[in-house]
Write a structure and sequence with these properties.
14 strands; alpha+beta; two-stranded antiparallel ribbon; 8-stranded antiparallel β-sheet
Length: 298
């Protein structure tokens, strides 16, 4: 299937209610926060994980839509499949000998990985850990890139004390008193993340297609729907705003398009937002550059 022919930029708005959207292991799993401004942060890695999980759920078993970066599956195991497909033993001696016979073997390995794994085709991957000093599946720069998400307003995480009633052993039963624990929540926050889709990289490197693009939009809009937990509270994608260029290399700088999208409290009386309805998200479509169109998904 042909690679996409148009460049895109997009903005994601998602919110959290009484949950921890992205805990920081270096801070006792508190919600990530910019210490200078107090704005909340969600990493790009966290968002990509949600997208991968959604695709794996809805396209389970479908050829071409496997996930490369997944829990408890060694990357080298997937790399070895490319060698097996090309009839090469995955050891240093065999790989070096095969490369002498076929100087395009590394490209064939890379192409196999891109064709079979959706997240490599989309986000790229570093596949250079297979055999040190020998042939490997290479490093792929993906056409889709995401930045960190940042909250629209500063957040004030709350530390909630909880109690544990269940006991584990007979010895625990002899102890008196109640065990205490803690969990961190953000009462409410609206986050904004920005992303990029390069048609140039899709054509030259991974073959990211129109079908892949539509699946990406679907995954973004639904990335929290199969990922609910008590720790994360109520999370939902509220809107996806997509800018489409009429060309492969684009018709306007990305930052100028992002500046057209604004989110702000509906009125000055709202000092502590507690729902999405407390915000208004606008796109100044009258200022869209020539050759760029905007579509909003909610």
């Amino acid at each position: 299937m042909a690679a996409i022919a148009n460049r895109y930029e997009f903005v994601i708005f998602f919110d959290v209610e009484n949950g921890n959207p992205n805990g920081d292991p270096d801070a006792g799993n508190m919600p990530r926060i910019d210490p200078e401004t107090g704005y909340g942060i969600v990493t790009d890695v966290c968002l990509k994980r949600k997208i991968r999980n959604y695709v794996e759920t809805v396209r389970d078993g479908v050829p071409g839509y496997r996930i490369y970066v997944k829990d408890s599956v060694p990357l080298n195991r997937s790399d070895a499949e490319a060698c097996a497909y090309l009839g090469v033993e995955p050891d240093e001696k065999s790989l070096k000998a095969a490369k002498k016979k076929d100087d395009k073997l590394d490209e064939k390995l890379r192409n196999f990985m891109c064709e079979n794994f959706f997240d490599i085709r989309t986000f790229g991957a570093v596949m250079t850990t297979f055999v040190k000093g020998a042939l490997n599946c290479g490093q792929v720069r993906g056409p889709v890139q995401l930045g960190f998400a940042r909250s629209i307003d500063p957040i004030l995480p709350q530390e909630v004390t909880i109690t544990r009633v269940a006991i584990t052993t007979e010895a625990d039963a002899e102890k008196k008193g109640t065990e205490m624990g803690r969990k961190y929540i953000v009462p409410y926050a609206l986050y904004r993340a920005e992303g990029y889709v390069s048609a140039n990289l899709a054509r030259k490197v991974t073959g990211f297609s129109e079908d892949d693009l539509q699946l990406l939009w679907e995954a973004i809009l639904n990335m929290f729907e199969h990922d609910h937990s008590a720790a994360r509270g109520k999370m939902a994608v509220r809107e996806l705003i997509v800018f489409r260029h009429d060309s492969e290399l684009g018709n306007a700088p990305a930052h100028k398009l992002f500046e057209l999208v604004r989110a702000a409290k509906r009125n000055e009386e709202i000092t502590a937002p507690r729902s999405y309805s407390d915000y208004a998200v606008t796109v100044d479509e009258a200022q869209l550059p020539a050759g760029v169109t905007c579509e909003r998904f909610a």
